[in-house]
Amino acid sequence: MRGTVSTKLTDFLAQANSNIALAKQNNIQFTPTILRENLNKLSGLMSDSPAVPYIADKTLTLPDRIIPVRIYSPAPDKPLPVLVHFHGGGHMCGSVELYDPICRHLASIAQCVVISVEYRLAPEHPYPAGIDDCEQVLIRHAELLDDVKHQDSVTIIGDSAGGAICTSLSMKSLTDKRINIDQQILIYPSVDYTLTSPSLDCNGTGFLLETSRIKWYFEQYFQSTDADIIKKASPLFGPISAALPKTLIFTAGCDPLRYEGIAYANALTVAGVDVEHHSFDGMIHAYMLLHDLVKDECMATYQHIAKFMARV
């Protein structure tokens, strides 16, 4: 069933849909540069950016590469829970800078140390480069917190592609004991790369993120048409057991990824995982990047996260 969008987003979507139609009319093709620029424009809708006492840009140095991170703490002298953040953007867009207001809210409202990861992006760095970067930061995160007090517990959080990274790492943690995850927080996550979810049809046009763009994202990310590889990479079809971390998941009613998020939550519940699911029925994909338009919904999401983090 197609979602019914909130009136708060009517004007925004009218403009977005007009721009999409014009691009199609002029046969403007997707490129990484165009899509990255378009996503970055949403920064203008996140004017609410709270002050955080401790913010530091650091790097995790590996033998073959350096992974930049940004660390936030609302109270660097107080041992707080750790939240490792993986941004969204289809595995090929987004950045620590774009998500800076979100990470500030997470740190201040949920009272936690946030580590925001600048992982490598496709198509320059296809699957699984970005996941590998996030895995390394997760395993070695304590090295980055030498001047910040923190607890031993670790929660991971991601929206969209960031949610895909979270669930991929959770899946891997079942067999790789170097990966310790106490909880995962998923915001309209991408967990099915096979493009078979029914909401891709009913919500796949008119709500900002369109199915044609999702398909193009995945083509750039995998650079492969091997169905077995793509299905094996999809957390929805991977091993699901009670050993997976406690999960908080948010879905949006007008999101083409809605049903796969619900299917993942249901699969975890059946397996015996502790799952908390909230649906924002009038919201679209990426609503957290539209803070100025849907502030109540964004703040409600942060409050749910804060309560979840308080139970670590």
UniProtKB/TrEMBL annotation:
- Family matches, as Gene3D superfamilies: alpha/beta hydrolase (3.40.50.1820)
The positions making up the signal sequence are: none
Recite the UniProt keywords alphabetically. Hydrolase
| Record-given protein name | Alpha/beta hydrolase fold-3 domain-containing protein
Where the record annotates domain Alpha/beta hydrolase fold-3, the positions are: 83-288
Q: Kindly indicate whether the keyword Hydrolase belongs to this entry.
A: yes
Family annotation (PANTHER family) = AB HYDROLASE SUPERFAMILY PROTEIN C4A8.06C, ALPHA_BETA HYDROLASE FOLD-3 DOMAIN-CONTAINING PROTEIN-RELATED
Q: Does the keyword NADP apply?
A: no
So which domain of life are we looking at? Bacteria
